[in-house]
Amino acid sequence: MIGIMSDSHDNLPAIREAVKFFNEAKVELVIHAGDMISPFAAKEIKNLNAEFRAVFGNNDGERDGLRHFFKGICYHNDFQELELHGKKIAVIHGTTEDIVTALVKSGNYDIVIRGHTHKLEVKQGKCMMINPGEICGYLSGKKTVVLLDPEDLSYEPIVL
User: Fold this and answer.
1) C-alpha dist (Å) from residue 38 to 43, 65, 80, 106, 145
2) Measured between alpha carbons, how far is residue 129 from residues 40, 62, 97 in Å?
3) pTM score over 0.85
4) Taking 80 as the threshold, does the pLDDT of residue 75 lie above it?
5) pLDDT (tens digit, 9 = 90+) per residue, 106-134?
6) pLDDT over threshold 80, residue 76
7) What is the 3-state secondary structure (H, E, C) of the chain?
8) Which of 65, 110, 132, 157 could form a disulfide with 4 if both were Cys (CB 3.0 to 4.6 A apart)?
9) Beta-sheet strand order (sheet of 111-113)
10) pLDDT at 59 over 90
11) Whole-angstrom distance, CA of residue 131 vs CA of residue 105
């Protein structure tokens, strides 16, 4: 089982809540689809009992600081490819819809994980697209994450 979150936007209590949830769910991997914002989020992420991967979002301006404070936890990039349980996964923040659409239609991935819109959305098809919404809760008023079983692609949207 993997945990997926995005758009935490410096909300440390929300990050803490997500970390606690993912630890209780015993996920093997947590993916953050961008807009963590500040390096001080690393102290909360360090409490995860799972591997952690993240990409930069459009609001992640302090990239050198994020890389420094997350050293040993994860390596930030604008885009990541992962393979898990035989499934190819693309992770991107998704600032440009055309790029997200191209990744989904490319036939190269089983799953595309994106953020940016702060809107929880899962589209199933030949390639599954997952946007976990926002962990910060600033725009929607809801702190959301997604649990995904990468083996059978079953998922569960979670409101924290």
Assistant:
1) 11, 8, 20, 33, 20
2) 29, 28, 12
3) yes
4) no
5) 999 999 999 999 999 999 999 999 999 99
6) no
7) CEEEECCCCCCHHHHHHHHHHHHHHCCCEEEECCCCCCHHHHHHHCCCCCEEEEECCCCCCCHHHHHHHCCCCCCCECEEEEEECCEEEEEECCCCHHHHHHHHHCCCCCEEECCCCCCEEEECCCCEEEEECCCCCCCCCCCEEEEEECCCCEEEEEEC
8) 132
9) 79-84, 87-92, 111-113, 128-132, 120-123
10) yes
11) 16
pLDDT of residue 152: 94
One-letter amino acid of 33: A
Burial annotation 40-60 (CB, 10 A radius, 16+ → b, else e) = ebbebbeebebebbbbbbebb
Do 91 and 80 form a contact (C-beta atoms < 8 A)? yes
C-alpha of 157 from chain center: 13
Position with higher pLDDT, 110 vs 37: 110
Are 129 and 114 spatial neighbours (Cβ–Cβ below 8 Å)?
A: yes
Q: Provide the token pair at 101.
A: 């659409």
